[in-house]
Design brief:
By secondary structure, the protein is α/β, with parallel strands linked by helices. The chain has two domains: 176 residues, Rossmann fold, CATH 3.40.50; 81 residues, Orthogonal Bundle (N-(1-d-carboxylethyl)-l-norvaline Dehydrogenase, domain 2). The chain is built from twelve helices and eight strands. It is globular, with a radius of gyration of 19 Å. The chain has an eight-stranded mixed beta sheet. Helix 2 packs antiparallel against helix 3 and helix 8 crosses helix 10. Its EC number is 1.1.1.35. It catalyses: a (3S)-3-hydroxyacyl-CoA + NAD(+) = a 3-oxoacyl-CoA + NADH + H(+). This is 3-hydroxyacyl-CoA dehydrogenase. Pathway: Lipid metabolism; fatty acid beta-oxidation; Lipid metabolism; butanoate metabolism.
Length: 281
């Protein structure tokens, strides 16, 4: 089974990157979202990715061709009618995902494999809504896919070996390094390492041990890492950080409150909006 025609549900920051990464490696890619406004925003993100890919890979013509090949639609039936693989990147809310998969299951061809990009929900939480648990699993992308090119593949007890291997093959053909997650794990491999690190930094900030810039500088000087934790928060997006922290311990909830009051309520969501803990051009 080789997966070629790809549909991405949800065209936010990561959904747009998944579309571009897929198209850049020569596969047909269609993006679906629920409104024209969402697609207008997605179009702007995709336009901006042309420069990112051209700079990183050194092939402006290929990057522009990838952008021009991507289709966007608000018609779910049209989006999935020829799909071999549907990658779901809708908000991290189980109710929204349930509604999405119930609609998807009724419209997608029987051969279509479904893959969730969920960072916080296990695929087994979602599988009952898909109507085809044997053809459902997780394919988790890291932000800035073109350079942070891991593709974490995680199935459930119901996922068929054929579907799993088909998604591993798809990951390889679209420029990813497949990470075979051998059993379900909240946070996969990457976020199981990353989230405790970011949480430790947020606790230092909330407990007034040091400010964000000092914490970042300490980490970068001490380890040689290119980014500090609060720079990573800005890259990931402060909305995502807020949702994760609001379900943590009391200190994490204080951090979530700080994010909301000092940043999110003022439209400072990180790199995507030009300002978060830092300002960006």
């Amino acid at each position: 089974m080789q997966l070629t025609n790809t549909t991405v549900l949800g065209t936010g920051v990561l959904g747009s990157q998944i579309l571009f990464q897929t198209a850049y490696h020569g596969l047909p890619a269609i993006g679906f979202d629920i409104s024209d406004e969402a697609l207008h925003a997605a179009s702007g993100r995709l336009d901006a990715l042309v420069a990112e890919y051209a700079s990183f890979f050194g092939d402006p013509a290929k990057a522009q061709a990838a952008r021009e090949s991507i289709q966007l639609t608000t018609d779910l039936a049209q989006a999935v009618k020829g799909a071999d693989l549907v990658i779901e990147a809708v908000p991290e809310n189980l109710e929204i995902k349930e509604q999405t998969y119930q609609k998807l299951a009724a419209l997608a061809p029987q051969h279509t494999i479904f893959a969730t990009n969920s960072s916080t929900l296990l695929p087994s939480d979602i599988a009952p809504f898909t109507g085809r648990p044997e053809k459902f699993l997780a394919l988790h992308y890291a932000n800035n896919i073109w350079k942070n090119n891991t593709g974490e593949v995680m199935g459930t007890a119901s996922t068929s070996a054929e579907a799993y291997e088909a998604v591993v093959d798809f990951a390889e053909r679209t420029g990813l390094v497949p990470i075979r997650v051998l059993k379900e794990q909240p946070g996969y491999v990457l976020n199981s390492l990353l989230v405790p690190f970011l949480e430790s930094a947020s606790h230092l900030l909330v407990n007034e041990v040091a400010d964000a810039a000092t914490i970042d500088t300490t980490w970068k000087l001490g380890t040689g890492a290119p980014y500090g934790p609060f720079e990573i928060y800005d890259i990931v997006g402060l909305n995502t950080a807020y949702h994760i922290s609001s379900h943590g311990d009391e200190t994490s909830k204080k951090f979530a409150e700080l994010l909301k009051n000092e940043y999110i309520d003022h439209g400072k969501l990180g790199v995507a909006t030009g300002e978060g803990f830092y300002k960006y051009n």
